[in-house]
Amino acid sequence: MDNKYTYARTCVYNINYHIVWCVKYRRKVLTSEISDRLYELVNTIAAEKGFSVAKCRVGDHDHVHCFVSAPPKLSVTQIVKYLKGISGNSLLKEFPEIRKSLWKGQLWSGSYFCETIGSTSEENILRYIERQKNCQL
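Given the sequence above, the corresponding structure tokens read:
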């Protein structure tokens, strides 16, 4: 994120979130192939819903870190709902083998972690997400 500010029609903003969510029961189902598809889905979802994802990485095959920049009209709850809901449904359809490790057809746990990120700590969070274990089973 070179330019800290986004210029919209009615406002200028720099709103960033570090969002983390886990696979239900912390099952280690996010293989390299599934993770690669997840990254594609996350970027597509962001583009369609009006926010951007600067970085997204899977950690330890069972959780996801995303660094998101969003306009003030989108709440964190909406963003997480889009990311988890759409990606979860798509991944379960495209990779039916995931269901063997899960019950009730849900890929993601019901909760998530979120923190706001100011411009001073942005670089640290991006480095932290980048250092997450690469998915190699």
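Residues 58 and 64 are 4 Å apart (CA to CA). Try to locate this feature in the token string yourself.
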